[in-house]
Specification:
By secondary structure, the protein is mainly beta. About 15% of the residues lie in helices and about 40% in strands. It is elongated. A hairpin with a 2-residue loop joins strand 3 and strand 4.
């Protein structure tokens, strides 16, 4: 009986921490969409707004305007640096955020939106 009570309590705590999503959401990903540019690399997403992302791909977020922190991967023996930018995230869209290097040998880079695609099954609110 005690094990069942403990299991039920643990399940309740885990479910209370889960984030639920309605019919409208957005997503960000550091993955590459286009593979044509040799100076473009996948970015490491660090934060969207005040939330740390971790290893979740793609990361769900409510539509809105956010400060996004990304890090470039190591490039030609240079460790990746972090940068922030402001991004207006539209509903039902997935954003592929990448690191665009100036050239194949240097450390200078800029965060870029590689592609934006609609999310299947997501519905914008009808108002």
């Amino acid at each position: 009986m005690r094990i069942q009570t403990t299991l039920i309590t643990a399940t309740a705590f885990l479910l209370a921490g889960c984030q639920t999503w309605g019919p409208t959401w957005s997503e960000v990903s550091g993955d590459r969409y286009h593979r044509v540019d040799p100076d473009r690399r996948p970015a490491i997403l660090l934060r969207v707004g005040g939330e740390s992302i971790g290893f979740v791909k793609p990361y769900r977020v409510a539509p809105g305007t956010y400060r996004v922190a990304v890090q470039a991967p190591p490039h030609n023996r240079f460790s990746g640096s972090a940068k922030e930018f402001t991004l207006k995230i539209e509903p039902c869209r997935r954003y592929y955020i990448n690191a665009q290097f100036e050239n194949r040998t240097g450390p200078e880079w800029t965060p870029v939106i590689d592609y934006v695609e609609p999310i299947a099954g997501c519905r914008t609110a009808v108002g």
